[in-house]
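(Deposited chain)
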Amino acid sequence: MRTELPSGTAAELVHPSAGPSPRGLVVVPDIMGMRPLFDDLVARLAIQQGWSVAAFELFPGREDLEVSDRLAAGSSLEDDRVLGDAVAAADLTGAETVGILGFCMGGMYVLKAVATGRFDSHCPFYGMIRVPEQWRGAGQGEPLDALAAGAAASVLAVIGAEDAWTPPDHVDELEATGATVLRYAGADHGFVHDPSRPAHRAEDAADAWRRVVAWLEA
């Protein structure tokens, strides 16, 4: 069901067939934002896991931006707005206990969401551990600072060992906070969530999903 958060940001909400669940999940899309891929993911997680699931647009009002324009506009995003929308999406599920997962830029915001204290578990898929140079702006804080302000042990991070967006030294820094890191040898950026991508690795994706679902259920 398409709806809006209090900020006006577009969101997708799906409850399981039995109705609203006591367990909620927020999904933060990759840099390309809300699209059928994420509508399907939200529905699948709600139906298969019995969770109330919500996702929201990272670039509200700019949904028509191409990927190159979104990459260039990364520095215009502000943590207060994005994390405010993440918390509002958690409230939208109606659940008291809510986890959060996200991909790429969305994974970076999952790391930052640790500092909000709203989520009991955080699962970033190849989320940037340090804000990339081209995205740095006045409204952007560092993910590692957010982990220092919250419960880093609530994080299960999925990382591709060949991903230039998450270099090994950054991954080591993430792990040093107390986060749990799953490293997949030979995997590049985006290897889990979109089967149409050349980087997709079906066996690794299935393993990552199994581990993430178990983490969220625990």
Summary: The chain has a mean pLDDT of 97.
